[in-house]
Design a protein that fits this description.
200 residues, alpha+beta, Umud Fragment, subunit A, two-stranded antiparallel ribbon, 3 helices
């Protein structure tokens, strides 16, 4: 996975604005960046662009007012590292199968090391609106709250996507489909579901 370059808060704001405008298919001009971020001179904007270029995040096409482009390094893509069963638990192999472009998601300040994606397999979470073939975006974390949907590591390194439930102070995993029994065996939370992507 690509290392995330260090950016100052102002550099991050400039990059975020460029990402937003590139996503709208209208790269910003130097003047528009200045107006958006309150810079009084275009020279200040040029300094920020130079810093982002040195960090390998943007490039500029000369003699073109909307010639600012994002490099591959600036495109935040979440790796799809395997499949996760939303049926009977099964192995999820950490083998990158593609990427999800995070520019289309509202993930706030999450970084490259904070999230991963898994392709859902099975129907045990259909009543939660999670279907076979969906891409589950998981925030890495070792714990979650009651009722959160989590990626859980079971014994023998099996991974499953289920709802975390608490009963008498003890947590178990529950499907969102009446055809599946709750899982009471030992497990470890490896992440919390933050969104699902479905392509039609």
């Amino acid at each position: 996975m690509k290392e995330k370059p260090f950016l100052t808060p102002k550099q991050q704001k400039v990059l975020d604005f460029i990402r937003k405008r590139v996503g709208e298919r209208l790269p910003p001009t130097i003047r528009e960046i200045g107006e958006e971020l309150g810079f009084k001179s275009t020279g200040t904007v040029r300094d920020y662009l130079k810093a982002l270029m040195q960090k390998g995040l943007v490039k500029r096409m000369n003699n073109k007012s909307r010639g600012i482009e994002l490099t591959d390094r600036a495109t935040f893509k979440i790796p799809i590292i395997g499949t996760i069963n939303a049926g009977k638990p099964n192995l999820a192999y950490e083998e990158i199968q593609g990427y999800v472009d995070a520019d289309d998601l509202f993930l706030g300040r999450l970084g490259f090391d904070d999230v991963f994606a898994l392709r859902v397999k099975g129907d045990s979470m259909i009543d939660a609106g999670i279907l076979d073939g969906d891409i589950a975006i998981i925030k890495k974390r070792p714990s979650a709250d009651n009722n959160d949907v989590v990626a859980a590591l079971l014994e023998n390194n099996e991974v499953t996507l289920k709802r975390l439930r608490s009963k008498a102070g003890k947590f178990h995993l529950e499907a969102a489909n009446a055809n599946y029994a709750p899982i009471f065996e030992e497990f470890k939370v490896i992440g919390k579901l933050i969104t699902v992507i479905r392509k039609y």
